[in-house]
Design a protein that fits this description.
With 313 residues, the chain is of the alpha/beta class. The chain has a domain at 21-166 and 237-309: Rossmann fold (3-Layer(aba) Sandwich). Helix content is 38%, strand content 19%. It has helices at 67-70, 97-111, 123-134, 153-165, 174-184, 190-200, 220-223, 229-249, 267-277, 293-296, 298-309; strands at 4-5, 26-31, 37-42, 48-53, 74-79, 116-121, 139-145, 170-171, 201-203, 209-211, 254-259, 281-286. Strands 1-2-3-5-4-6-7-11-12 form a nine-stranded mixed β-sheet, sandwiched between helices. Strands 8-10-9 form a three-stranded antiparallel β-sheet. A hairpin with a 5-residue loop joins strand 9 (201-203) and strand 10 (209-211). Helix 2 packs across helix 3 and helix 5 (174-184) crosses helix 6. It is globular.
Amino acid sequence: MPPEPTPRPGAAPVAPAPDSALPTPRDLRVAAADGLSLHVVQWSREGVPFLFVHGFGNEAHIWDDFVPALAPHYAVHALDWRGHGDSDWHTDGAYDWDDHLRDLEQVVEGFGWQRFVLCGHSLGGRVALLYAAAHPEKLAGLVVVDTGPEHDPRGQLRIRMDAESQPDPSFENLAECQTMLAHQYAAALPSAIERMARHTTRQRADGRFVFKMDPKLRNFSARAEGMSNDELAAHDEALRERLWAACRSVPCPTLVVRGAASDILSADVAEAMVDDALAHGSLAVIGRASHSVMTDNPDEFGRALEGFALGEG
């Protein structure tokens, strides 16, 4: 059966992005793997489906700024990964790459999409590459935002330290949360920080605000527990090889987006993806942007995305 709209208890109303007329979203619940239910924001229903998937620690509304330009042309949707946003948490902390891949497969099957465009940032971009390799016939286009088969260790360490330094933070008010997010997303626009704080938190019974993300996701050490250093290295190498193979197998037009100041996706890796691996790849380097490209420079990112998605590039 197709997904049905389900009201989200306590969900904040969507505030329009500045100078933008957002369509009215519908909140859907979609069956995923392992008996989980995932949250999808549906912005429009006419045209080829266009699915946004976010990165670690984010949620579906990270893409709000880019909906107005795409909604008249695509059936625009944005997914909350398991353990994030308003999607279910996995009891045993099953949050590996293939867990997300199985979820994505179930979501696409649930909607009945035969062909669609997929845009993913960071975690979402890597899962998108794995999906493209497994189901090349499904994708009309692919956008991979600031991620690739290899990550700069500096950025990986930064993300891990940010997460593990505050394993389960709480805030007296949203202003406190914005202060923390502004430190972690140093280049992000204030409007993006404000929206992020609203949509990534919920208010507990005691009045304090906490992140909707499963705390298990923030504990990188626990997730690697029971694996030796050699096993961890082998796991990372297998993923690297799998992602390079995925890049080489993607047949559809693919846009790789890199933040010019990214500490995750190096210029060398981004160029190798486009020049040596992807059959129909192009590269957009976004100035004044680090890893969180869409919050750091939404105007330039939006132009690159629209140029690709609307055939204007």
